Amino acid sequence: ANLALQEGRLAAAQMELNNAQIQLDEKQMELDHVQAMYDTAMKEKQALLDDAEACRRKMNNATALIEGLGGEKLRWTASSKNFQNQIINLVGNVLLATGFISYSGPFNQEYRNLLLQLWKKEMDNSKIPYSNDLNLTGMLVDNATVGEWNLQGLPNDDLSIQNGIIVTKASRYPLLIDPQGQGKIWIKNKEKNNGLQVNS
Q1: Residue 114 DSSP SS3
Q2: CB-based contact 186:146 (threshold 8 Å)
Q3: CA 57 to centroid of chain Cα atoms
Q4: Cα distances (Å, whole numbers) of residue 35 to 25, 99, 103, 115, 173
Q5: Are 198 and 188 in contact (CB under 8 A)?
Q6: 158-169 and 182-191 helices, crossing angle to 10°
Q7: Which segments of 90-153 are extended strands (E)?
């Protein structure tokens, strides 16, 4: 009788165990399903965070580019205005440069400056525009050429550089008043590879 009683209890306990196992399996399936949904949601969240960070970087880059282009706009506007002024003043500037090359060769620095002032006055009277801050040396020769001339023996003062411009740019034979012989030395060094012949 005791054995039968215990077997009945065992069978009831086994049934409860089976029911509990079934419930556990169901809950485990629900947990796995929820875990999968959670993992998917976390992946989507991370993807959204990555996209947001990429958008933030793009916005920062775009903002920096816009700010840089804004600064460039100011520079381009100023450059455009400067080019317009250069175009307007080009005829007068070229007129002054050609007059300088053609007529100022035999004169000293003081008289050259006086000639320029007289020419500017005539151009003002004739309403020919020119640049008030015109630098004839900078207009007619670049720094690299001047440096090369200096290496060949031409002094670095304004008068000597102007003489170098006149010698190299004038269409007529230039006259060099050269009491110290510096111009002579420079021309010999400059033209020695071109077969220069010197008559004493």
Answers
A1: helix
A2: no
A3: 24
A4: 15, 91, 96, 95, 97
A5: yes
A6: 40
A7: none
Per-residue pLDDT tens digits for 85-113 = 889 999 999 999 999 998 888 888 899 99
Q: Which residue has the tokens 């520079």?
A: 75
149 contacts: CB under 8 Å, gap ≥ 6: 161, 164, 186, 190
Q: 109, 155 in Cβ contact below 8 A?
A: no
User: What does the chain come to in residues?
Assistant: 200
Mean pLDDT by 10 residues, the chain (200 residues): 83 91 92 93 94 94 83 80 87 92 86 92 93 88 91 88 88 76 84 77
Quick one: the chain helix, strand, coil %, rounded to 5?
A: 80, 0, 20
For the stretch 125-134, pLDDT in tens is: 999 999 888 8
Dihedral over Cα of 44, 48, 51, 57: its sign? negative
What is the Cα–Cα distance from 96 to 90, expressed in whole angstroms?
10
All domains of the chain in start order, with CATH: 7-140 (1.20.920.20)
For the entire predicted model, the pTM comes to 0.58
Query: What are the tokens at 135?
Result: 């630098």
